[in-house]
Amino acid sequence: MKVFYHMLFLLPVLLEGSINPKGSEVIKQFPLDERSLYKIGISTEAPTTIMFPGPIGAISGANIAVSEEEAADVLFSYTENKHFFHVRALKNGAEGAANVVYKNRVYALTFYNCEQAIRTVNFYEKNSSLGSNINCQVTPERLLELLDKAKTHRFFEMQYPEMVQQIEKAFPMSKTLYKHFEVLLEEVIRFDLEDTLVFRVKFINKGTQDIYYEPQRLAVRVGDNIYYASIVDASGILPACAQTHGYFAITGKPNGGRANLSVKNDFSIIVMQVEDSSLVLMP
Prior knowledge:
This protein is mostly beta strands. It is built from 1 helix and 23 strands.
């Protein structure tokens, strides 16, 4: 994905926002700029979660630690290849710093303990316009990121409801019936900037024979139009008397351009069945 960076003055960015008189925690969104210094207020009582648009390449820090037993002011929690991490102050007056590598650029963050802590920070790429209707180029790497976000969205919605970006989603629970199996559409999530919908489906095989299908040919029908998958995470196998889950996404129109499909459409799931496992081509 091509990223355009606008010229900014070389001034630190202080992440302070509207906080009520009681000092309640805030949620902030900020554009990524490697020439800015991001100052983030943190609390001793609750974690602050830092979200990047995609998987983080590396993190180096000062005065931060992964265990409370280590000599540091800030507790740090991160899982490799994820697009988020958590920090928390271990004492009053705590200070720490981190350099975050994302898409081969380094972003400088400093953490300081304060009463008016920021609970969540969502960084976004400046060309995204936070969901504008600009039709950007959607690369395979970006599709992988969207699939990962869709998979983890429910976890963050339950554990950190205040940090989940506002995206359009629906839970149709509609079924597409086939002769020997059925497909339950459990969830649809829309990422507007990329004009991409991610589907979470459950394949249900009530028969006594294994069923095979082509994952790369999964598609949805909306009215008279068919939209084939742009990325798939599905096995291609429905074991006998079992249920399996799969994810796939569709992006734009089949002939190019934006489709602007709503998650509220009536979707039929198209599955291309094959006779045996040797004909299953993994995506």
